[in-house]
Structures are given as C-alpha cells and as structure tokens.
Amino acid sequence: MRYVVALTGCSGIQYGIRLLEELDGTRELIISKMGKKVLEEETDMTMTDLGASAEEIYEDDNLFAPPASGSHQFDAMIICPCTQSTLAKISTGIADTLITRAASVALKENRKLIIVPRETPVNAIMLKNMLHLAKSGAIILPASPAFYNKPHSINDMINFVVGRILDQIGQEHSLFRRWE
Ligand SMILES: Cc1cc2nc3c(=O)[nH]c(=O)nc-3n(C[C@H](O)[C@H](O)[C@H](O)COP(=O)(O)O)c2cc1C
Fold first, then answer.
1. Ligand 1 atom closest to Cα of residue 34
2. Can you give the CATH number for the domain in which 81 is found?
3. Does a structural domain hold residue 174?
4. 74: DSSP letter
5. What is the pLDDT of residues 91-101, one digit of tens each?
6. Is residue 159 lining ligand 1, measured as CB closer than 6 Å?
7. Which of 2, 3, 85, 120 has the fewest CB atoms within 10 Å of its CB?
C-alpha cells in the first residue's frame, strides 16, 4: 500500500506524527510551511526526525512531485491534522500547493481522501466546506478522541484518533480497546 500523508499547520501535529509511525506501507510525506512551524512549536522533533517515518518527503511548493499527477498511483491520502485553510482550498478546488493538488487528484481519481480537521468552535463557512467535501467523496474524520475507552494519557487519546484513521483504510491495529 502507498499513502500520501500531509501534515498542515494545525494544533495536534502529534496525530500526524503517530499516524506516520503506525502506517504499514510506503509513506509519502508532505508538510506545509505552517505545519513545519507547528511541529517546532508543539514538539521537540525536527524535520529530520519526522523524515525517518517516511519513505519519500516532498516540499509543499513542489508541484512537480509525483503526488501532483493522477498517473502516480497511491491508495489513499490522509491530511492529518488538516487546517481549515487547507480544507477550504480543497473544498473550492484550489490546488496551488502539493497538498491541495494531491487532494484534488485523490478526489478526481476516486481514491480515498481522509481529512482530519482540528478546530473548535467551527463557523458556518467551515461547516459548509466540510459538508461539501463529504458530499464530494472525502471522509471527514475530526480529531475528537472518545472517552468510553477510558484513556489514561494523551497518548491513549492520540491513539484513538489514529486508530480510527487506520480503520478507514482497513489496517488492523490494537491502538484502542473497541466497544464490545
Ligand atoms: C500554533 C498555531 C496553531 C494553529 N492551530 C490551528 C488549528 O488547530 N486549526 C486550524 O484550522 N488552523 C490553525 N492554525 C492556523 C493555520 O496555521 C493557518 O491558517 C495557516 O495559514 C494554515 O496553513 P496550511 O493549511 O498551509 O498549513 C494555527 C496556527 C498556529 C500558529
């Protein structure tokens, strides 16, 4: 399996980091300019550390990179976390960065596009954009950890969200206790 994983300038960059660690298959990583800044702000990781969890890394302004073309095969694209800015661009068809272009490609090629927004509260524009994307074939999977599995740590909460992403792509995992 081949995945395009995008990290954008959202709080909760840890969700994307854990996702990269857990994904089985080839990981093509794109991180936006603001994503790099939030990585610095919220973690002690460098881009080099993050790069160790990906087979390929592309710059977000490199529209010549493989994920920009529909002829480049990938099984799913996951934007985790996804800012409302990136989400709005994808919703309106703007494809001026590698992340937004790859998302547009995923939709036009009928490939799985999983968008993990992290924002609260959300305004009507954001809701409209999310609805439009859901109707256009994207999976909107908000970063909202559950509590029925009695999390003991932030790690447990991150694992819940990442586990729900893995559920969407059909990857087996034991990141959280399922409701029985
Ligand atoms: C520390 C920090 C945290 C942010 N958190 C969020 C967030 O949780 N959700 C969001 O939609 N935007 C958030 N933003 C705003 C985005 O970074 C901003 O809209 C940016 O233009 C998004 O660019 P990108 O989508 O290319 O990464 C945050 C910005 C900063 C500096």
1. 27
2. 3.40.50.1950
3. no
4. -
5. 999 999 999 99
6. no
7. 120
